[in-house]
Amino acid sequence: MGNASIGAVLLLALVIGQRLVELQIAKRNTKALLARGGREFGAEHYWLIVALHTAWIAALVWFGWQQQLVWAWVGVYLILQVARVWILRSLGGRWTTRIVIVEEPAIRRGPYRFVRHPNYWLVAAELITVPMALGLPWVAVLFAALNAAMMWVRIGAENKALAGLPKA
């Protein structure tokens, strides 16, 4: 395995490891939110999000593990991870991969002061950035388009669910 593929494998391991840790955090937070009386919305389309992200990772691994890294895109990915930490810290125990609404005011701190749904923007950027870091622009275009369609459904469901929350 050459230096090029070692870098690609390390990037892929980082992305996969990060997603696995996030799924554990999301599972824990979802359970706690539901125990506090939270209600889940959009469960009927959640499996599509899981399928989309699984296919994205599979495409990255299948086509990207031997690629030479494009370091500028790796840098963008690392900057996005700083934004991820900001988002996770801002939502705290309310961050999850599902739409679980509790009868509390919506979060208006951190990046949520500036933009609605920053986590979705971040994920959209990652779906482009990681394939570009692996020299796979077609994977970036394909999954950006699929994600845009999925986010149209997802954000609509989330906005509907959030509409009933008390104002902060």
UniProtKB/TrEMBL annotation:
Instruction: Cite the InterPro entries for this sequence.
Output: ICMT_MeTrfase
Any single Pfam family the record assigns to this protein: ICMT
Tell me the keywords, alphabetical order: Membrane, Transmembrane, Transmembrane helix
The listed locations are: Membrane
Q: Where do the TM regions start and end? A: 47-65, 70-87, 120-146
Task: Output the superkingdom of the source species.
Answer: Bacteria
Q: How does it sit in the membrane?
A: Multi-pass membrane protein
Q: What is its main location?
A: membrane
Protein name, please?
Isoprenylcysteine carboxylmethyltransferase family protein
Native organism: Devosia rhodophyticola
